[in-house]
Amino acid sequence: MIETMSTPEGRSAGWTRRTRARWAWVVIGLAACSARTPCGGSSDKGAADKACTDWATHYCNRLESCAPLSLQIGYGELAECIERNKPVCSSVLRAEGTGQTPSRMASCAQAYDTTACEEVVVAKPPSACAVPGSLPVGAPCGDDSQCSAPNGYCRMASDDTCGTCAELGRVGAGCYSDRDCDHGLVCYFTCMAPVAAGAACDGMTRQCPATMICLDYACVAPGASGAACNPRADTCDRDRGLFCDPQVKRCSSYALAAAGAPCGTGTTCRAGGCATNPATQKSTCMANAADGADCDPTAGPFCTGPARCVNGTCKVPDAARCN
Question: How much is the pTM?
Answer without folding.
Answer: 0.85
